[in-house]
Design brief:
The protein has 491 residues and is of the alpha/beta class. It folds into two domains: 280 residues, Aldehyde Dehydrogenase, Chain A, domain 1 (3-Layer(aba) Sandwich), CATH 3.40.605; 190 residues, Aldehyde Dehydrogenase, Chain A, domain 2 (3-Layer(aba) Sandwich), CATH 3.40.309. Helix content is 40%, strand content 22%. Strand 20, helix 15 and strand 21 form a beta-alpha-beta unit.
């Protein structure tokens, strides 16, 4: 089937419509179904299983059996071989995954291809780490020997968001499997398919049945029973602050360990001595990639006054030149993921316009110019907003850049930190001393200097303040799925 046929409304073939439990696809206990929508057309293109608490029980039981009966005892090197095979398969089948990811999430095809490559790299990275998670020895008194072991946590529940389905699934499933854990993943109901396909691919790579299970459905019907399940030993959640707080409350009942990656309102500081072209390109990518639907999006531009006018004028010019369209046509700028989210983003800007903010460009819903369909919002830039304005304080999770003007680097630091979130921040300056001082003093989990979204799977990622706690990616991400056991011996 061609991309043109899919855009025209022909449904993709061979999409799974059941959960993936114990090594195979199966329908829900009561066979209820949900529709998945193509955001570029605002039309349903496939159905999938809307699960129940009974399905969650079955998936968790399968994971527990696989963990205690098989997976935790598999040699680390063999776990690595399986993950290497999974990475190779994902690269071989990358185009299929990218097309489905673009169709389901709405993002441009080139971005989806990059996400699939990143997912394959995550499995490759953790495949190489399986036999390198080493304990320590401790300097006890003479006559004693002390050392530690890293043991797998057990069964991990993973709640996967809709904005980066394959990327987020890989960055949490891969380290969990590498550490020796079993997984029950629950993708967002807006974007279920690549997580299901990934679980099936892992099975083909040699993963034993039950080690990775995927249950689909709503947050209330499947997500809530999963994070509250007594058979879960660890939870990784990516999503909103409010839902993350609810997950924490559920986890408290069983003292379940957590990694929470929540919201962001990340600043991009641009100082007068920056490389102007690199900074303009970086600021645009930071907020308009995936139509701004990124927790770590650079949604606040904090810029020195002396370069503000020309810099912002160029941002507006380039934003207005973006090609908008269906994700599978690989435009510069795709749709928002759902009608409800489009209304949320639009509501933020409409309310701000009534307060008198300056909207330099955008601020309106639109559609695919070729079809007249879809959930699109124009790239939007708001100038010189007050530090108390909701556009500065609240996560919009859309293509809305809010500009704040700083008098100097010290003022820029104060504006950057005047926020209840602390996920990431960007800094553009040619003065490396200033860059490192800002990186030291900004309260965020990750700082990008002179290239937004720099780094990769090797770099630990996570937030401070309301952006959550715990880290994903890197070796530190693998430690999130391990528990340390200390052993002392009298010789």
């Amino acid at each position: 089937m061609t991309i043109d046929e899919i855009i025209a409304g022909k449904n993709p073939e061979a999409l799974p419509d059941g959960h993936f439990i114990d090594g195979r696809f199966r329908r829900a206990s009561d066979a209820r179904m949900m529709e998945s929508y193509d955001p570029g057309r605002a039309e349903a293109f496939a159905s999938f299983t809307n699960g129940t608490a009974d399905d969650v029980d079955e998936a968790v039981d399968s994971a527990r059996r696989a963990f205690s009966g098989v997976w935790r005892d598999v040699a680390p090197a063999e776990r690595g071989r399986i993950l290497f095979r999974a990475a190779a398969l994902l690269r071989e089948e990358g185009e299929r995954f990218a097309v489905i990811e673009s169709l389901d999430s709405g993002k441009p095809l080139s971005e989806a291809r990059g996400d699939v490559r990143g997912a394959a790299r995550a499995f490759e990275y953790y495949a190489g780490a399986t036999d390198k998670l080493q304990g320590d020895s401790f300097p006890l008194a003479r006559g004693y020997l002390g050392f530690s072991l890293h043991e797998p946590m057990g069964v991990s529940a993973q709640i996967i968001p809709w904005n980066f389905p394959i990327s987020t699934a890989a960055r949490s499933i891969a380290p969990a499997l590498a550490a020796g854990c079993a997984v029950v993943a629950k993708p967002a109901e807006q974007t279920p398919f690549t997580a299901l396909l990934l679980a099936e691919l892992l099975s083909r790579a040699g993963l034993p049945n039950g080690v990775c299970n995927v249950v689909t459905g709503t947050g209330a019907a499947t997500g809530a029973p999963l994070v509250a399940h007594p058979g879960i030993d660890q939870i990784t959640f990516t999503g909103s602050v409010a839902t993350g707080q609810s997950v924490m409350r559920s986890a408290a009942d069983h003292v379940t360990r957590l990694v929470l990656e929540l919201g962001g309102k990340s600043p991009v500081i641009v100082l007068a001595d920056c490389d102007r072209e690199a900074a303009i390109t970086g600021v645009l990518g930071a907020i308009f990639e995936n139509a701004g639907q990124i927790c770590s999006a650079g949604s606040r531009l904090v810029i020195e006054r002396s370069i503000h006018d020309d810099f912002v004028a160029e941002l507006v010019k380039r934003a207005e030149a973006f090609r908008i369209g269906h994700g599978l046509r690989d435009p510069d700028f795709g749709p928002l993921n759902s009608k409800a989210h489009l209304q949320k983003v639009s509501g933020f800007v409409d309310a701000a316009r009534k307060r008198g903010v300056t909207v330099l460009t955008g601020g309106e819903t639109t559609c695919d110019p070729e079809s007249g369909k879809g959930w699109f919002y124009k790239p939007t830039i708001i100038d010189d907003a007050a530090a108390t304005d909701d556009l500065v304080r609240e996560e919009i999770f859309g293509p809305v850049l809010t500009v704040q003007i700083a008098e100097d680097a010290a003022h820029a630091l104060a504006l950057a930190n005047d926020c209840r979130y602390g996920l990431v921040a960007g800094v553009y300056t040619s003065n490396i001393a200033n860059a490192l001082k800002l990186a030291r003093d900004i309260d965020a989990g990750q700082i990008f200097i002179n290239e937004y979204f720099a780094g990769g799977i090797e770099l630990p990622f996570g937030g401070n303040k309301l952006s959550g706690f715990g880290r994903e990616k890197g070796i530190e991400g693998m430690l999130s799925y391990s528990k340390t056991k200390s052993i002392a011996i009298k010789l």
